[in-house]
Write a structure and sequence with these properties.
Blueprint (H helix, E strand, L loop, with lengths): L7 H17 L2 H12 L3 H28 L2 H24 L5 H29 L5 H29 L3 H18 L15 H13 L2 H31 L4 H25 L5 H9 L3 H9 L3 H29 L2 H16 L2 H11 L5 H18 L4 H5 L4 H6 L1
Helix pairs in contact: 1-6, 1-7, 2-6, 2-7, 2-9, 3-5, 3-9, 3-14, 3-15, 4-5, 4-7, 5-14, 6-10, 6-13, 8-14, 9-10, 9-14, 9-15, 9-16, 10-13, 11-13, 12-13, 12-16
């Protein structure tokens, strides 16, 4: 079950990633309530989330080029330093009661720009660290840690925010990033392809050609342009707003809901360590469509138990998609181009998210939340399942050698 850990490079990367996942598991919830603490308006939260996403969009293509041309571990380390500075600044502002929405927007933008380099580098580094037959297991193991910490992290964050304040969650994240940097130095990779010199536009053109030539890739990314806008707006903006202002849910209850989603992911990662996904995209898109259930339930009846059960199912489905998508990308795209192609995937998936946060921040003040959320759930499910009509999505299987050894 742990054959991926036999690869030395993956072991060190896994440890570093696990530390950042553990310490950062509280930060997203803490940041949301930090913003609402400064200004109890859903629109203010939407501005901060939009700033993060816009910065990510602006820099992600350049991040993909850099990650294909320079040492990926070094890129991740450098970005962690930037994250330490930005998250540390947020903590200081909160501790000193000098935080303002414009300052939080600016720091979120810095963090978003850093993430634009980290994500393509992480996507490209995994195939360099483990054997092809271990790709699904390696991705499932990383998801296992991510889901394990999100089970307890949001609950602890909810308690910490309501007792000590959100600044302490930011401090925990900073400590984790500081610990991960020297561990990543132990990851040894082959030198990048080429002589280190690159032409930005030529490399971007190569990445675009690789991206556009695959109908399955284009279809899923186009679907997620809308689905992610719904997710970040309805779940990321409306969810915390309802939690803070509806007694049926509450801040602590929202932590339990997010944790239930993590339990669903956790259990599914255990399954995927043993069971190979022979049709990764088909099963993945069916799985991700389950997110429509908690989204609709949040609008109809935001009771903790009901929404948590629905979130559990959505978490299991999301993990099927996440692992299936990563395996499909890593098996069908060459390692030397993977970060660039991934950056186009991220750009397409994220580009409408700022609009989603702003639109939902506006909608929640002018429309019935039940109507907004239930309609969003229906649209989300319809788009996810529509991708199954694309033949390459429905029919894609695993690379034969990898499937045989999984």
């Amino acid at each position: 079950m742990l054959s991926a850990m036999q690869d030395r490079g993956f072991r060190w990367f896994f440890v570093a990633r696990a530390i950042t996942l553990v310490t950062g598991s509280m930060s997203s919830i803490a940041l949301a309530f930090a913003v609402l603490q400064v200004d109890n308006e859903a629109s203010s939260l939407s501005y901060v989330l939009a700033a993060f996403t816009i910065a990510n969009i602006v820099f992600v293509l350049f991040g993909g080029v850099v990650a294909d041309r320079l040492p990926r571990a070094l890129i991740i380390q450098s970005c962690y330093v930037l994250d330490i500075l930005s998250m540390g600044a947020v903590a200081v502002l909160l501790f000193t009661h000098t935080a303002t929405i414009p300052l939080l927007v600016a720091l979120a933008a810095v963090n978003g720009a850093s993430t634009a380099f980290v994500l393509p580098a992480m996507q490209g580094i995994i195939p360099q660290l483990t054997r092809p037959e271990n790709l699904q297991q390696a991705n499932a193991m990383l998801s296992f840690v991510r889901s394990a910490v999100t089970i307890g992290g949001p609950v602890i964050a909810g308690i910490l925010v309501t007792t000590a304040g959100p600044a302490w969650a930011m401090v925990v994240q900073v400590v984790g990033w500081m610990a991960a940097i020297p561990i990543l130095a132990m990851v040894k990779l082959p030198p990048p392809v080429g002589d280190g010199r690159f032409s930005l536009f030529a490399d971007l053109r190569t990445g675009w050609t690789e991206f556009w030539s695959r109908s399955w890739l284009v279809a899923v990314v186009l679907a997620f342009m809308v689905m992610n806008a719904i997710h970040v707006g309805a779940w990321g903006v409306v969810g915390p707003y309802i939690a803070k202002n509806d007694e049926r849910l509450g801040i602590a209850g929202w932590g339990w809901v997010v944790s239930a989603e993590g339990v669903g992911v956790l259990l599914m990662t255990l399954v995927l360590m043993w069971v190979p996904l022979k049709r990764p995209l088909r099963m993945g898109m069916i799985g991700i469509s389950l997110f429509a259930i908690p989204l609709t339930m949040l609008g109809l009846n935001p009771a903790v138990v009901l929404v948590a059960i629905a979130a559990f199912l959505a978490g299991a489905g999301a993990e099927v998609f996440s692992t299936g998508w990563n395996v499909a990308m890593m098996e069908n795209i060459s390692t030397e181009k993977l970060s660039r192609v991934s950056s186009y995937d991220m750009l397409g998936s994220f580009v409408v998210m700022p609009i989603g946060t702003l639109v939902y921040g506006w909608l929640i003040t002018r429309a019935d939340p039940a109507v907004v959320l239930t309609t969003s759930g229906i649209v989300y499910a319809a788009i996810a399942l529509a991708t199954l009509f694309v033949p390459s999505v429905w029919k894609m299987g695993r690379v034969q050698a990898a499937t045989a050894r999984s």
